[in-house]
Amino acid sequence: MKPIINRVAKSSLVNIDLEDFYPKGKRVSIDIASWLYKGQILKEKQFRTLVSEHNWAAYNNNYVVLYCSTQAIIPSWAYLLITSQLVGYAKLIVVGNLELLEVTIFTEIINKIDFNIYKNKSVIIKGCAKKPIPSSAFTMLINKLQPVVKSLMYGEACSAVPIFKKK
């Protein structure tokens, strides 16, 4: 009886799993509607008081999304005022939603990777993840990898989908 040989493990394929790059830190949303008069009107003096009295230390080492759940028109300075309080506590602050937050996080992560380590290699980008990896993170990754790799695949080594092969 011949021993079973794991050809995938012996191959020169390099696996990239974006889930390995997923940073620790709680994702928190701050709805500023509760700081508005009747949830609709920003009264500057009242708003500034509420912002200055808020416990910003509670967001230490968190990723923070600022948004307003009502149809109120929020001046840009209001988000800037809140951001100025969060700086030094939060790891990252965005105005928008949790999806934008994850895209921004992964943009920073991908931009810090030295892609020269993948030069002329065959790379498989793992697709399935238990954590919320945004689709655009995969797009960003391919943009950075394709100019340097020999080939790109997506999925698992046993059933990878070819994406790119250098000619």
Write structural notes for this entry.
By secondary structure, the chain is an alpha/beta fold. The chain has 2 domains: 7-23 and 102-165, no CATH class; 27-90, no CATH class. Helix content is 31%, strand content 18%. The chain contains 5 helices and 7 strands, in the order H-E-E-H-E-H-E-H-E-H-E-E. A 4-stranded mixed beta sheet has the order 1-5-6-7, covered by helices on one side. Helix 3 links the parallel strand 3 (63-67) and strand 4.
Element layout with pairings:
Blueprint lengths: L6 H4 L3 E3 L10 E5 L12 H10 L9 E5 L8 H11 L5 E4 L2 H15 L9 E4 L9 H11 L5 E4 L6 E5 L2
Parallel strand pairs: 1-5, 2-3, 3-4, 5-6
Antiparallel strand pairs: 6-7
Helix pairs in contact: 2-3, 4-5
Q: Radius of gyration over alpha carbons?
A: 22 Å
* Strand order in the largest sheet: 1-5-6-7
SSE topology string:
HEEHEHEHEHEE
Q: Tally the helices: what do you get?
A: 5
Q: What is the total domain count?
A: 2
> Structural class given helices, strands, pairing?
alpha/beta
Q: How is the quaternary structure best described?
A: single chain
Beta-strand content estimate:
15-25%
Terminal CA distance: 41 Å
Low-confidence stretches: none
Helix content estimate:
25-40%
How many strands?
A: 7
Question: How would you sum up the global shape?
Answer: elongated
Largest sheet: 4 strands, mixed
Average pLDDT, all residues: 92
Keywords:
single chain, 167 residues, alpha/beta, 2 domains, four-stranded mixed beta sheet, three-stranded parallel beta sheet
How would you briefly describe this protein structure?
By secondary structure, this protein is α/β, with parallel strands linked by helices. The protein is built from 5 helices and 7 strands; from the N terminus they run H-E-E-H-E-H-E-H-E-H-E-E. 31% of the residues lie in helices and 18% in strands.
